[in-house]
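Design job #97: recover the sequence.
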């Protein structure tokens, strides 16, 4: 595999995990990092043993050695950073949500296509081996005709009024909880069932209309020390939401998302019910796939390459009994993207070989989130996805 030179823009919570996953591939060389200023970039570069540190993303993008960038900045920077990278012909691996709204996502998709770069969005949950297995099983009819997909994605990191993060700010986007984690759930539901969402009906709740914004800085998911100085900050985005779904293939769905549910850390759960059987998976117990049956005992399929369908068994890197989880799914996704880049493939000519979510999936996700928010703001009315 040809070695690919890459760089990170935005080294907060998720950025270093992108780098760790890329490095595990063995043919990706992480050559630079950009931060919001030179001092922070240098500190992050030293911590991650990355040779070059840039105080601005523009300076990093002017470095001709760099072929690929990981855009791990806060959501309001996704558009300017990605557009600047595309302009310079860099391949882009963007974290979700691709954009603040569907119009910006379309701008990025069109620009990426016109320039011929490789573009990916990190909907990483797809690449858990048992989500791949569920997709194969649903596709080959093991659970029969699917009629309902349901679940949740619930967390507790914004439970208290002094929990704070840029996601709560106006620049974070019109939707918060749905855009941040509901986007993952909807992407996964569409991916494993093979059907797009057609219409939605949503109800949003903001538990805290004001939050205590610390005067200093605080990393994502970090708790308040309790004695920070703060300003009261008005918040109008949703702390939790419930959503009904109608899919294009006639299937129905429902899911809830929350950032204020005590005890739930990263509770993504999904179940697909068909007229023969059901499958269900919980990301916090990623090595177990539940198989629901009517006339015989229910089953658990454990993650084991010897038991997985041969077409997707390579997504399990370890033998059965050796747990694989979030970081491994991330590595699986990046392996697909970087192999494509290393082999010199083109998104247009090799469209049938794309095994990763693209800006088209990112745009689709923005359209779904937008319709969900529109439905909630209208008081809960069925709203078609406008694509
Ligand atoms: N795929 C996933 O599972 C997943 C998980 C977490 C976050 N995310 C996404 O990743 C993105 C980042 O989220 P996070 O939780 O890591 O946030 P974060 O606040 O921890 O990190 C963002 C980083 O970007 C830096 N930054 C800000 N302005 C910059 C600039 N102009 N140039 C360079 N760097 C700049 C910040 O200093 C910070 O270090 C978000 O879009 C989020 O939705 C995805």
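Job complete. Output follows.
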């Amino acid at each position: 595999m040809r070695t690919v030179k890459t760089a990170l823009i935005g080294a907060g919570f998720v950025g270093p995990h992108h780098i760790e996953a890329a490095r595990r591939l063995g043919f990706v060389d992480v050559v630079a990092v950009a931060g919001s200023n030179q001092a922070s970039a240098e500190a992050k570069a030293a911590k991650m043993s990355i040779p070059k540190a840039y105080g601005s993303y523009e300076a990093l993008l002017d470095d001709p050695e760099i072929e690929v960038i990981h855009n791990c900045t806060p959501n309001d920077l996704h558009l300017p950073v990605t557009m600047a990278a595309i302009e310079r012909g860099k391949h882009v691996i963007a974290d979700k949500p691709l954009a603040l709204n569907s119009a910006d996502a379309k701008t990025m998709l069109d620009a990426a296509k016109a320039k011929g770069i490789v573009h990916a969005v990190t909907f990483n949950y797809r690449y858990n081996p048992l989500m791949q297995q569920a997709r194969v099983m649903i596709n080959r009819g093991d659970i029969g005709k699917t009629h309902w997909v349901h679940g949740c994605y619930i967390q507790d990191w914004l439970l208290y009024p002094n929990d704070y993060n840029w996601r709560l700010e106006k620049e974070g986007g019109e939707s918060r909880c749905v855009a941040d984690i509901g986007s993952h759930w909807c992407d996964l539901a569409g991916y494993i069932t093979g059907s797009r969402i057609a219409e939605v009906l949503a109800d949003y709740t903001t538990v805290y209309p004001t939050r205590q914004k610390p005067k200093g800085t605080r990393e994502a998911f970090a708790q308040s020390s309790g004695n920070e100085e703060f300003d009261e900050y008005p918040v109008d985005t949703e702390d939790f939401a419930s959503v009904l779904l109608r899919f294009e293939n006639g299937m129905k769905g429902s899911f809830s998302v929350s950032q204020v549910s005590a005890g739930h850390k990263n509770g993504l759960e999904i179940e697909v019910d068909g007229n023969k059987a059901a499958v269900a998976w919980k990301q916090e117990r990623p090595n177990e796939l539940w198989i629901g049956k009517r006339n015989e005992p229910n089953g658990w399929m454990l993650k084991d390459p010897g038991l997985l369908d041969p077409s997707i068994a390579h997504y399990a890197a370890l033998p059965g009994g050796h747990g694989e989880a979030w970081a491994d799914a991330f590595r699986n996704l990046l392996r697909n993207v970087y192999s494509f880049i290393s082999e010199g493939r083109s998104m247009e000519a090799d469209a049938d070989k794309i095994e990763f979510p693209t800006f088209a999936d990112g745009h689709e996700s923005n359209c779904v989130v937008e319709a969900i928010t529109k439905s909630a703001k209208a008081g809960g009315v069925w709203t078609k996805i406008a694509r």
